[in-house]
Design goal:
8 helices, 14 strands, 30% helix, binds magnesium ion, alpha+beta
Length: 324
């Protein structure tokens, strides 16, 4: 088998690659970050950023690198503390551009209250591009375990805001489509911290990135062996993203964000959780979009606008290459 762009989509080809080659050889948990033993439990994650273009409306590769890493740590209810970053720079990159990206990383790290404590730089031949690899460490806050495998029957599903904005911003810029869509690229520290300090019974969290909400929900459903039911009319999508989707035949359910999360919350706490998320930074458009209806079966069912039922799978094919 040869690697194709589809192996980077975050959808079915990516998970097949991970299962067949990586999880068989490494001690990987299929979670946003792994919790390992130390003086206290610490969460660990790593990520690589190859987004093209490196500057886009609403952010750049530097902000994206910090947000992506911080959000993966948050999704295990840990408090992000330390990041490392490795830069792979292509020959010809303007140092002013590099400086701008590094300043953007520093600003985002300050916003997320994390410290970038180690780094590495390599230069390769190329065309002035930049890749960033990060690692992140967070200190686990939870008493109740927050895990992809922890969704329970009757839990409610909350999405923290509008779908597809990062994907739509990158695609618009690449295609030269004029609109004012901006990437939602943001660290979700405030909303996760507010859920934790208010002792909300959050069973699972995952940030909605490559592959979109449909892929992320399928991953959670499979890990917990539960059936999710979500309602199309409740999905928050901005008018501009909806227009772009109409124009290009895309579905917001399969488009990536970089500043949104899905939280699966005990039914008795879900209204309170929604209020907390809506009052938090970057959570104003949050909505309860569905619930866990069965724990004898796994998958994701969509109740469509015309009242039909549709089984949602994970993203198939290459999606939008180099979206993050
Ligand atoms: Mg993630």
């Amino acid at each position: 088998m040869k690697i194709t762009m589809a192996h980077g989509s975050g959808g079915s080809d990516t998970s097949k690659l991970i299962e067949e080659i990586f999880t068989n050889n490494f001690h990987n948990e299929l979670e946003d970050s792994a919790i390992v033993k130390g003086c206290n439990n610490i969460a660990v994650t790593t990520d690589s950023f190859v987004v093209s273009p490196m500057n886009f409306p609403g952010g750049d590769i530097g902000r994206l690198a910090v947000c992506g890493t911080v959000n993966d740590l948050l999704m295990r209810a840990s408090k992000p503390e330390y990041l490392t970053c490795g830069f792979i720079l292509q020959e010809g990159l303007d140092t002013d551009v590099l400086k701008q990206i590094v300043e953007s990383m520093a600003k985002t790290a300050k916003e997320a209250n994390v410290r970038i404590v180690a780094g590495d730089t390599k230069v390769v031949e190329g065309d002035g591009g930049i890749y960033i690899n990060t690692a992140g460490i967070g200190f686990v806050q939870n008493v109740v375990e927050v895990s992809a495998a922890n969704c329970k029957c009757n839990d409610d599903i909350i999405i923290s805001g509008n779908l597809g904005e990062h994907h739509a911003a990158i695609l618009s810029k690449r295609m030269g489509i004029e609109n004012s869509i901006e990437s939602d690229c943001a660290p979700l520290c405030d909303m996760v911290n507010n859920l934790i300090i208010n002792k909300i019974k959050v069973h699972a969290m995952r940030d909605v990135t490559r592959g979109g909400l449909a892929t992320v929900l399928n991953e959670l459903a499979e890990a917990s062996n539960v059936l999710f039911e979500i309602t199309e009319s409740k999905l928050p999508v901005s008018a501009q993203v909806e227009d772009l989707c109409g124009l290009l035949g895309l579905e917001p359910l399969f488009m990536g964000n970089e500043g949104k999360m899905v939280a699966v919350v005990a039914h008795e706490d879900s209204e309170k959780a929604l209020k907390i998320i809506k009052a938090s930074k970057y959570g104003e458009n949050a909505a309860i979009i569905g619930r866990v209806i069965k724990d004898t079966d796994s998958g994701v069912t969509l109740i469509t606008d015309i009242g039909g039922k549709r089984q949602l799978g994970v993203l198939e094919g290459e999606g939008l290459p180099r979206i993050c």
